[in-house]
Design a protein that fits this description.
By secondary structure, the protein is α+β, with helices and mostly antiparallel strands. Helices cover about 30% and strands about 40% of the residues. The longest helix has 21 residues, at about 100-120. The radius of gyration is 16 Å and the shape is globular.
Length: about 190
């Protein structure tokens, strides 16, 4: 579960240690924990990465995604690992303390968008798992998908998080199937 600033000091001792470091989302006063081999990119740096994609269809899809994240309301943050296996986007949004019922609606919307994007690029999108957990202060929804074509497979994991009067969507995209829960649990929302 995520921590507010006050909760973090009490429960950090009971957490299983994982290797990594904190990155600060300074404009939103949030600390996220990722493996040390991740790097944070500015909007300009990340756009250059997108524009360097050689496959024109893939570049077009990524540029549309980048523009949607950049120009919609709320800050956006981008990270990539140094081997370019995994990329992460974090999109801030208006505070929305969603419920378990809301998370099923969110699952439907994300699944539909995943299928639309997969069809556009001649791929299939399969939901692997989804879940919700919440308490009075923190709500977390997770959905994981496998996106496949004849030539490639990748995994996309979405976390919608509301805590300490802040809401954001954490998106992991990777060519390997990784469980990100241990990193999500270490987020500190101040």
């Amino acid at each position: 579960m995520l921590f507010s600033c006050k909760e973090a000091s009490k429960t950090n001792e009971t957490k299983k240690e994982i290797s990594g470091q904190y990155f600060e989302l300074k404009e939103d006063n949030i600390s996220i924990f990722l493996p040390k081999y991740f790097k944070q990119y500015s909007l300009d740096e990340y756009k250059r990465i997108v524009l360097s994609i050689e496959d024109s269809l893939h570049q077009k899809i990524e540029l549309t995604r980048f523009d949607n994240l950049k120009f919609s309301k709320g800050n956006v943050y981008f990270f990539r690992d140094l081997s370019n296996i995994t990329d992460i986007s974090i999109k801030m949004m208006e505070y929305f303390p969603f419920t378990k019922k809301d998370s099923s609606i969110l699952l439907g919307m994300i699944s539909q968008k995943c299928n639309e994007n997969a069809i556009e690029s001649n791929k299939t999108c399969t939901k692997i798992k989804a879940g919700y957990s919440g308490n009075v202060k923190t709500k977390v929804f997770m959905a994981k998908y496998k996106v496949e074509s004849k030539f490639s497979t990748h995994y996309t994991t979405f976390y919608a998080i509301s805590s300490n009067y802040k809401s954001f969507i954490f998106t992991f995209r990777s060519i390997v199937d990784i469980d990100y829960k241990k990193y999500i649990e270490k987020i500190i929302v101040k």
